[in-house]
Amino acid sequence: MASINTVLGAIFVASFYFCGSLAFFPPGPGHHHEGAHHPPIGSAPIPGLSTDYYRLTCPQADETVAPILKKAIAKEPRVAASLLRLLFHDCFVQGCDASVLLDDAEEVVSEKNAIPNKDSIRGFEVIDEIKAALEEACPQTVSCADTVALAARGSTVLSGGPYWELPLGRRDSRTANMKLANKNLPPPNATLHRLIKFFRRQGLDKVDLVALSGSHTIGSARCVSFKQRLYNQHRDNRPDSTLETSFYHTLASACPRAGGDGEIRPLDLVSPSRFDNSYYKLVLEGKGLLNSDEVLWTGRDPEIAGLVKSYAEDEALFFEHYVSSVTKMGNINPLTGHDGEIRKNCRRVNQEI
Ligand code: HEM
After folding, report:
1. What is the DSSP letter of 161?
2. Contact assessment for residue 293 and residue 190, using Cβ atoms and an 8 Å cutoff
3. Where are the chain's structural domains?
4. What is the mean pLDDT of the segment spanning 122-131?
5. How big is the CA angle at 281 (ends 117 and 164), to the nearest 5 degrees?
6. Which residues line ligand 1 at a C-beta cut-off of 6 Å?
7. Is 31 a catalytic residue?
8. How far apart are the first and last CA of the chain?
9. Which of 216, 268, 275 best tests ligand 1's pocket when mutated (most atoms within 8 Å of CB)?
10. Candidate CATH numbers 1.10.10.10, 1.20.1540.10, 1.10.420.10, 2.60.40.1120; the one for domain 192-328
11. Buried-most residue among 2, 22, 37, 103 (CB within 10 A)?
12. Which of 215, 220, 225, 293 to mutate for ligand 1's pocket (most ligand atoms within 8 Å of CB)?
């Protein structure tokens, strides 16, 4: 006979999938646990942004985004990861203003060619498709910066991750800053000390660093992003000693010493397209793919290591902190009011008439 636990478990799993299918509608009370442990700093209102910003001007924004995302992710699950990463790479460079989406032009040096982005960030075609649909539904209303934020939130939910109330109303920059992209986006071989500094520069703390690194529960990285760990971690021609042995061998066979730099490996080898807490479990086992993942555990910061352990043990806690931290990241330095513009095409600034 099924025990009460099995029955409750089944209800939980069923409700989880049910919420997933209603991806863009807020779950009922009690589903997410904002702020019980970590104060919801991220939810502190930002002047000019609000969760019902398009209530009168584009109430169908969410419904417009959802089917396009669903289709794109069904076709290629990795696209969810790529879209989530776009929010990070947008917000860390002059704020969440869609600067990352601008192509090279007379007045624009595209951030797409910055070292952390080149041959790496992706998902632009999906953003274009969503934006075109939004323009059709509500012309010149929903910004590209909000489009990126909506796509990131939707991608997280569709991958099984948490839902969050998304403040909207960001406007789009008329500039990009490739130099700042090189300066502000952390490299994968950064020490823990440097990672903390990169995040602090954006007003983000250690909890944010650990929780947001959990985004590496989905998606992939190229060999070039972690090769140093396999062959020359400390300029000593030796592998990173914190890599678990069998994991090291799998990686080394996929990424030879010479060549193969563009080959990709999943960031979370257990469930590469499911947004869950297995990333932290892997990091505890020496199976974090990037140096920046592994140092959260091995970098000798007791608060940070403690958080990794807590998230590995408690997925609900990870989700709760994630919601707070991703909200905070999405609120970095937005353009509001009369600043910036609502781009018609996310790849270029509007032409002055
Ligand atoms: C803590 C500092 C971080 C570092 C050093 C870092 C670095 C990287 C690198 C090197 C890759 C692989 C790129 C490639 O090989 O082409 C990657 C992938 C990814 N990153 Fe991060 N990242 C960090 C934080 C974040 C944050 C805060 C987010 C989101 C909120 C994020 C989301 C992702 C996702 C989803 C992918 C997979 C993308 C795909 O498959 O297209 N990362 N990251």
Report:
1. -
2. no
3. 192-328
4. 98
5. 60
6. 78, 81-82, 84-85, 88, 120, 122, 186-188, 190, 195, 212-213, 215-216, 218-222, 225, 267, 290, 292
7. no
8. 73
9. 216
10. 1.10.420.10
11. 103
12. 215
Task: Go through 158-168 and write b for each residue having 16 or more CB atoms within 10 A of its CB, e for each that does not.
Answer: bbbbbbbebbb
Share of the chain above pLDDT 70, in %: 87
User: How big is the CA angle at 210 (ends 205 and 215), to the nearest 5 degrees?
Assistant: 120
pLDDT band at 24 (very low <50, low <70, confident <90, very high): low
The protein residue whose alpha carbon is closest to atom 41 in ligand 1 is 82
Binding residues for substrate: 186
Q: How far apart are CA 13 and CA 31, in angstroms?
A: 13
Cβ(206)–Cβ(196) below 8 Å: yes
